[in-house]
């Protein structure tokens, strides 16, 4: 937890002084190597010297330009729900970051809770994962979670999610920033979706749209907000969104953008003066859990709050005297819903053909 906070303070520029300046200079050199590698790979695919592999059903990729934390998971759930509403058998494939048990990571556990009948395959080889999904679940369409840079898999629709609160990953590729590739990668996309629009000002939102337009003038831009739907605990019991108003809580999260979650809680009137940020896909230990309990008691909190991705990894621990609630969130398309539906229709036409 400490190293993660130090790293984020370093690359964000919040940490000042001579040694952070030297460290950032070193990270710039490593970022150059990383960016060059990404550019070479994309060049080889663009020229056809590396080949994308088709599978027997249409594929929709939901990805991003930065590492983690853009709000892809709620959007994956939105697409799964939309296809189920249209009575299309949908499957999900993903890489499985943070899976230390070979039983599926936190995203797999959350998806299973929400959609127990949906086939979900996690495999570093997304082509193999798609083929397994078709064979195992007889799926008719596949949603590839975090697939934008996995160009070996051919996709029928490429949607890139851009987090309004941190759209360009501190302006640099890994490890100096959070970008996986240059912003010019947007030119490969079919749709750009700006997530968490409610957490920034209209001017910031317009600046992000303008940046997209400069790089990809013809790219359709969709805007979405996070939609809190209430609180849920490990037993599946639910609490209205107002249920924790006025109560002192300890908030924590092990996701790609914990600060966005913190800001969302603040918008709900939750006191986040005590907030613990863990690395993305953090595997909680008994020690972590005991520290959180002690912090909560020391701060006179009467509950702990987190994300559903965190909650599914805490079921093995005794909750003690303090209840733990996860914020159940969805996504609301506030601008560009017609563009998404038209894109889905085009993909489904390929399925019918």
Summarize the structure.
By secondary structure, the chain is of the alpha/beta class. It has helices at residues 2-12, 18-46, 72-85, 106-114, 126-137, 202-215, 258-267, 286-298, 308-311, 337-352, and strands at residues 59-64, 90-94, 119-122, 141-145, 157-163, 191-195, 220-232, 238-239, 250-253, 275-277, 304-307, 324-335.
Kindly describe this structure.
This protein is α/β, with parallel strands linked by helices. It has helices at 2-12, 18-46, 72-85, 106-114, 126-137, 202-215, 258-267, 286-298, 308-311, 337-352; strands at 59-64, 90-94, 119-122, 141-145, 157-163, 191-195, 220-232, 238-239, 250-253, 275-277, 304-307, 324-335. It is built from ten helices and twelve strands. The radius of gyration is 20 Å and the shape is globular. The longest helix is centred in the first third of the chain and has 29 residues, at 18-46. Strands 1, 2, 3, 4, 5, 6, 7, 8, 9, 10, 11 and 12 form a twelve-stranded mixed sheet that branches.
Topology (elements, then pairings):
Blueprint: H1 2-12, H2 18-46, E1 59-64, H3 72-85, E2 90-94, H4 106-114, E3 119-122, H5 126-137, E4 141-145, E5 157-163, E6 191-195, H6 202-215, E7 220-232, E8 238-239, E9 250-253, H7 258-267, E10 275-277, H8 286-298, E11 304-307, H9 308-311, E12 324-335, H10 337-352
Parallel strand pairs: 1-4, 1-5, 2-3, 2-4, 5-6, 6-7, 9-10, 9-11, 11-12
Antiparallel strand pairs: 7-8, 7-12
């Amino acid at each position: 937890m400490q190293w993660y906070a130090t790293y984020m303070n370093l690359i964000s520029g919040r940490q000042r002084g001579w040694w952070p300046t030297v460290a950032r200079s070193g990270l710039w050199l490593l970022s150059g190597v990383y960016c060059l590698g990404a550019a070479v790979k994309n060049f080889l695919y663009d020229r056809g010297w590396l080949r994308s592999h088709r599978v027997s059903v249409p594929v929709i990729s939901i990805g991003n330009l930065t590492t983690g934390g853009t709000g892809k998971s709620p959007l994956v759930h939105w697409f799964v729900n939309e296809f189920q509403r249209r009575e299309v058998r949908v499957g999900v494939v993903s890489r499985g970051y943070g899976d230390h048990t070979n039983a599926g990571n936190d995203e797999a556990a959350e998806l299973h809770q929400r959609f127990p009948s949906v086939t979900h395959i996690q495999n570093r080889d997304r082509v193999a994962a798609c083929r397994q999904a078709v064979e195992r679940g007889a799926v008719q369409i596949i949603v590839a979670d975090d697939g934008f840079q996995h160009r070996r898999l051919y996709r029928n629709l490429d949607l890139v999610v851009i987090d309004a609160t941190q759209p360009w990953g501190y302006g640099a590729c890994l490890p100096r920033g959070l970008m996986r590739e240059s912003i010019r990668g947007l030119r490969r996309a079919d749709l750009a979706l700006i997530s968490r629009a409610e957490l920034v000002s209209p001017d910031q939102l317009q600046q992000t749209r303008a940046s997209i337009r400069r790089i990809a003038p013809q790219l359709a831009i969709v805007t979405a907000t996070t939609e809190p739907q209430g609180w849920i605990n490990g037993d599946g019991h639910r609490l209205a969104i107002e249920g924790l108003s006025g109560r002192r809580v300890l908030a924590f999260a092990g996701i790609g953008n914990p600060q966005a979650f913190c800001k969302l809680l603040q918008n709900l009137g939750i006191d986040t003066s005590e907030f613990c940020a863990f690395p993305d896909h953090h595997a909680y230990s008994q020690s972590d859990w005991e520290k959180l309990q002690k912090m909560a008691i020391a701060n006179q909190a009467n509950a702990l709050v987190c994300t559903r991705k965190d909650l599914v990894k805490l079921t093995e621990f005794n909750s003690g005297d303090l209840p733990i609630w996860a914020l159940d969130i969805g996504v609301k398309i506030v601008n560009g819903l017609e563009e998404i539906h038209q894109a889905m229709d085009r993909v489904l036409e390929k399925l019918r053909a």
